[in-house]
Amino acid sequence: MTMWISxxxxxxxxxxxxxxxxxxxxxxxxxxxxLILVAFTSPATAVPVAEELLKALPLSDGERKDVLKGxxxxxxxxEGSDRELALGAVLLVPxxxxxxxxxxxxxxVFKLVGAxxxxxxxxxxxKEGDFAGVKLEPNGEEEADRYLEVExxxxxxxxxxxxxxxxxxxxKGGGQTEVEAVVRKQLLTRYQAYREKGLAGIPPYARGxxxxxQLSEDLLLATNQxxxxxxxxxxxxxxxxxxxxxxxxxxxxxxxxANVDVFGRPTxxxxxxxxxxxxxxxxxxxxxxxASHEYNGLQSIGxxxxxxxxxxxxxxYRISTDGVAGFGSSTxxxxxxxxxxxxxxxxxxxxxxxxx
Length: 356
Fold this sequence. Notes:
Elements: H1 11-14, H2 50-55, H3 61-68, E1 73-75, E2 84-93, H4 101-105, H5 108-112, E3 116-121, H6 140-148, H7 160-171, H8 176-197, E4 205-208, E5 211-213, H9 215-224, H10 227-232, H11 234-242, E6 251-262, E7 265-278, E8 281-291, E9 298-307, E10 310-320, H12 329-355
Antiparallel strand pairs: 1-2, 2-10, 3-6, 4-5, 6-7, 7-8, 8-9, 9-10
Helix pairs in contact: 7-8
């Protein structure tokens, strides 16, 4: 996902591979970015050719040869905790990076994956009408009932104020139409808070009467762990840490909402997409600062670098979820990564076709 098409919306982030009864629904504790994938050098140094870049990735010699043949190769790296999943992919395409920028700008990934039922771009000064396309589909009545019956927990990612709004709506006899209206208002409020205060503006999810999940802390941890980003592109690293302050001129930012069909349920997502251009290197980040259920949020990093043969595209996601933590974690992790893999390939195949 973020990968080059950093809009990040695909089955890989919506995680329909999280089977109920095996991986617990409601992704938690998020993300850490490992910039092993961003193997480019500083602007003062020549960008490496594909062979040099591939040496920085956790691939076997045979896998590196497969990449040079044009094959999509998946990889993983060390995971920071038993709650974290790490999975990436690499692909060589016969284009220079700037030819791929329009694909990022149009959020092409939203168009490539059938699980995405609707999406839209959020303007800087958004109004409620900019979320008019947000609907509880599929199975809208059933999902609306979940909102009307919501309590602190993992069925829906909401804060106490948001929960109270739906409880009040239930008392008034509201139905799906009224629920959708409240959902749109809450998405707008979350977007505005994030735009104003960045990570500090992300409201927590209520997990119990006195238990709150702070997504902002996980996103901050993820950004602090991006050691190579801090080393080679420090201005971008600071932009991630301090958003909305310290935004460099090389940074292009876009926001999207999306609806993804997960197990027949609408998963609503708020996405902050960033494109950074430094010399011949392009880096993209996708930060999901809200997801209505199945997981709490994520942060991913991708890079596109020129090579003799075209451009090398690399993407790595780190997603932390309680669904792979605890008892049996060592078994759950490889199974979950195996289930995620085909969806990465689906996205890369789509990008390869678009890049032609």
